[in-house]
Design goal:
The protein is elongated. It contains nine helices and 18 strands. The protein starts with a helix and ends in a 13-residue tail after the last strand. 23% of the residues lie in helices and 24% in strands. By secondary structure, it is of the alpha/beta class. The protein has a twelve-stranded parallel sheet, with helices on one face. The relative contact order is 0.06. InterPro entries: F-box_AtFBL13-like (IPR053781), F-box_dom (IPR001810), FBL13/AtMIF1-like (IPR050232), LRR_FXL15/At3g58940/PEG3-like (IPR055411).
Length: 373
């Protein structure tokens, strides 16, 4: 609470009324401001960490004492609020920023930002200063933006989030030895090899969140990461319309392949193409929604789960009698409206000897995973 009190106190000083009524009040405020300025840089930086980056930069005009304090902040965040000058502001802020390490850079750029901004230069600047977290969102531009190769060889990066109009181009060998969490949200991929190189370059990756759209330039999406613990995959936007009663495989022209033996949590939404899940002996929790064309191998891969949320479709009916869920304790069953599900459910229950909790809801399936890992 102490830092929040200091922040509030500082904020009062920054926004102090310029039209004070008496000299004594003016003298008092000057004494308070002097005391604030006398605080050590470390404390002032801790206070500025709770202030939006734009306001932190604005403190540089308060006095000579404040001029360079913000330049040592370990975290910078720039959010687009419709200003055409945002690109210039980010450019100058990164040029003036003097901290030897930049732990976190968060950037959101909208359609009003000039097309000639050098985003790659910003990323290069951050990567060269020991960056640990990068969250970059570009939306509304004419074509996807390519990031510098140095991003994919950053040995300090722990969290990487790329969103929307970004082209994932990993054409040369990559190395991300510290990366734990990777979020790829509606980006575009140069090719399938770029995805493979990116994932294979992350030997300690624990969390992967993927959201795809129909123009992401991939047919086959392969997740082969030995260290992966949690996977969230949302392919809802890959297909705009799906007939409720269409369960043949004629339209399948792509695949989702998951080969991650350490995986314990899996969330699948909108898997329209062929899905192959293999080698997941540690899987404990699974949320399966809108997987219209699963086969018996798909359901068999879930046989070790302890907690299962399943949107039950017509193509799953034939598999129910043969698959045993020997570890299943908690089962949330969401049957499709067009499926005669009572008898298949009986088979599932008979094959689940440890089951303690059963919930049946004939409603749209809710994903229980957060929007970020």
């Amino acid at each position: 609470m102490g830092f929040f009190c200091c922040l509030s106190f500082l904020w009062d000083i920054i926004h102090i009324n310029k039209h004070l009524s008496t000299p004594s009040e003016t003298d008092g405020c000057q004494r308070i401001e002097t005391r604030i300025c006398a605080l050590p840089d470390d404390l002032l930086l801790r206070i500025l960490e709770y202030v939006p980056t734009e306001d932190a930069v604005a403190t540089s005009i308060l006095s000579k004492r404040w001029r360079y304090v913000w330049t040592m902040l370990p975290r910078l965040e720039f959010k687009d609020e419709g200003s055409e000058s945002l690109g210039f502001f980010i450019e100058k802020s990164l040029q003036l920023h003097k901290a030897p390490k930049l732990d976190c850079l968060i950037v959101e750029i909208g359609p009003r930002c000039p097309a000639d901004i050098d985003v790659g230069k910003w990323v290069e600047n951050a990567v060269n200063r020991g960056l640990r977290k990068l969250d970059f969102d570009i939306f509304g531009t004419a074509k996807p933006t390519i990031f510098p190769k140095s991003l994919y060889t950053c040995d300090t990066l722990v969290v990487l989030t790329l969103s929307n109009k970004i082209l994932v181009d990993v054409s040369s060998p990559a190395s991300l030895p510290s990366l734990l969490y990777l979020n790829l949200l509606n980006v575009v991929y140069k090719d399938e090899d770029s995805l493979v190189r990116l994932l294979s370059s992350s030997p300690v990756l624990e969390g992967l969140m993927v959201s795809r759209h129909e123009d992401d330039n991939l047919n086959n999406f392969t997740v082969k990461v030995c260290s992966l613990d949690t996977l969230f995959y949302d392919g809802t936007r890959l297909k705009n319309e799906v007939e409720d009663d269409d369960d043949d495989d004629d339209d399948l022209n792509g695949s989702l392949v998951i080969d991650s033996p350490a995986l314990t949590k899996l969330d699948l939404i909108g898997v329209w193409d062929y899905c192959l899940i293999e080698n997941m002996p540690c899987l404990d929790v699974a949320y399966i929604s809108t997987v219209p064309n699963p086969d018996d191998m798909f359901l068999r891969s879930l046989s070790s789960v302890i907690h299962l949320h399943l949107l039950f479709t017509k193509s799953m009916v034939a598999c129910c009698n043969a698959i045993k869920f020997s570890q299943l304790i908690e089962f949330y069953f969401f049957p499709d409206n067009l499926v005669d599900w009572l008898m298949p459910l009986m088979f599932l229950l008979q094959n689940s000897p440890k089951l303690k909790s059963l919930t049946i809801e004939n409603v749209s399936f809710p994903s229980s995973f957060p929007t970020n890992i």
